[in-house]
User: Fold this.
Amino acid sequence: MTGWIAANPSIFLGALENHLWLTGVALSAVLLIALPLGLLLTRHRGFANAAIALVNILRTIPSLALLVIMLPLLGTGFLPSVVALTLYGLPALLLNTYTGLTEVDADIVEAARGQGFSDAQVMTRIEIPLALPVIFAGIRTAAVQIVSAATLAAFIGGGGLGELITAGMANFNFPQLIAGAVAVAGLALFVEVAFALLERLMTRQLRLGAS
Amino acid sequence: MSWTIENYDRLLIALWEHIQLVGVGLAIALAIGLPLGVLSARRPGFALVVLLVSGALYTVPALAIFALLIPYLGLGFWPAIVALVAYALLIIIRNVATGLQEISPDVLDAADGMGYGRWRRLFAIELPLALPVIIAGIRITVVTQVSVATVAAFINAGGLGDIIFQGITQDFGEKVVAGAVVTSALAILCDESLRRVELRLRANQAEHA
Assistant:
């Protein structure tokens, strides 16, 4: 496995780089969509129930199914993969953003309004900081889901580390197959642990700020 | 739609294979996960180790687990089952342990006072009370397994993923979509029916409480 990587460094690094691009772009898109949308849903509760029911269905769709459904719609390559991965990561963050914001104690919000906070101030100084741990847990889940599902992008020509696995299988090149599998497993574990540490650090900062 | 209509029998066979993968995977995962969950609820140190190991397994992408098993177990149904069980363990163990720990100590004291032995208390009192949380775990497990089983076609385990992969190789969009839609429908159906079971159990318990 290490032998294969040493012999083919450019193929390996290319696949890794592509995997990171797929993950990075999809995760950014999830953040850009889910955070404002989650906030918006808390302001329109009637609409929120329908949206959440829809998102719960989206969450249930298997990752491979979501990726391959892009084939007739958008064809093969990077873009359809990113669209599918964005849809795959979206539910985790959207649900956590919404839940985190709705769980903020109504008394605290009321007290802030009583002290003359404007709507924008209540949102940026009270609601978002208090909801941040739950929101961040959602970001972590989405990141791990996306980095993991990005392995399957290889099936629709999206590249990434999964391509080492599929190409290794097709050519009976087992060192390549194992190299891809170990790399993607390591990457997923790294993302999980890194985000868990960040989450802990942030929660501690918030607690210090509060006291 | 013509392919789907003419080949509905192939879709049904793939669906049946898929259900077998998930069913056998779930049964074995429960057989291992239930005792480990009970043990985890009793011993926090043991729980930490088990949750760390099963948590790491849960994080590894499905395709990577299948690929890593090839040199040891080869291709086919049983290697796929090993991966499906590995995925299920975290959630089952965690939910069994949580369900047992959430039971009020008063209830356990009452059972002890009535002369229940350890095993009778576990089977007659604790597990039934923990059932909604355990079912919630089974629900997440089944949805995850339906998804992972799709990828199992990569190691020739059959199932609906087979239809999808055939469609990709043959560059046949309808076949790909048919496979993907039936897989999604299966996942959504499992999720919804288990959610209803869970809600009914919770309602029953609330009534008796």
Notes: Chain A has one domain: 2-210. Chain A has nine helices and no strands. Residues 2-210 of chain A form a domain with the MetI-like fold fold (CATH 1.10.3720.10). Chain A touches chain B through 36 residues (CB under 8 Å).
